[in-house]
Amino acid sequence: MVKTKITRKKRIKPRVKRSESWRYTRISESWRKPTGKSSRMRKKRRGWALSPAIGYGSHRKYRGLHPSGLKEIIIHNVEELENVSIDKKAIRIAATVGERKRLRIIEHAEELGYKILNPKTSKTAEVETAPSTELESEPEKIEDEIESENTIAESEKSEKVDKN
Known about the structure:
Elements: E1 71-75, H1 78-82, E2 89-93, H2 99-112, E3 115-116, H3 122-128, H4 133-163
Parallel strand pairs: 1-2, 2-3
């Protein structure tokens, strides 16, 4: 018996809408199960919107995976990081973790060779958006221009005072 490899392909899933949300603006499109006694949508009448069904589910092997193909694990501290096995897993740092602890987790994860799905912190963002050396000379030019404008304005004021 030959095993066939299951290739992951994106299947088209219908966008399910709440019953008659297209008719009334006060009804949001977010899914709610139709429950009416004579609801055409509940009865699955032809021409009415589709309802969620078990057949639209993704393959069991790929369910819950990150698009990179790795399983996500939420980490709250460095100790949890040490208990995780490295194979086919990616790390997502919890949103409630502060910046100091986040930086420690990132350093430790890089040492162990984990893929971090949300590595950005405000400090790493500052490093990435740091101005280049060309931009550093521009503020000096701007300051020189401001000084020259101030001296021109002062000289004009003194001329007005002399005339009076």
